[in-house]
Amino acid sequence: MPSGPEQFVAHPLYQPEFTRARELLLATPGRWRIIYHYDGDGIGAASALVRALRRLGYGFQTTALKGVERARIEALLQATPGPVIVTDTGASWPESYVAHRFPVIVLDHHTYPGYPTPPTLPAHVAFVNPLDWGVDGMNELCASTLCWLFSIFLDPKNWDNVPWALSGAIHDRQHVGGFRGLNHTLVQEAMHRNLLHERKEISLRGSTVAAALTASIDPYYVGLSGRPEASTEFVRRLGVAPDGPVDGIESADRDRLAAALTARLTQQGARPEFCERVWTERWTFPGETVDAEELSQLQNAAGRAEEPGVGVALALGDPAAGHRCRGFWETWLTGVLRGLRRLEDEGAHQKTGLQWFQSPELTLAGTQAGLAITYFLDPYKPVFVLSTSDGSTKVSSRGTTWLVERGLDLATACRTAAAKVGGEGGGHRVASGATIPSDREEEFLQEADRIIVEQLPVRPETSS
Question: pTM for this one?
Answer without folding.
Answer: 0.85
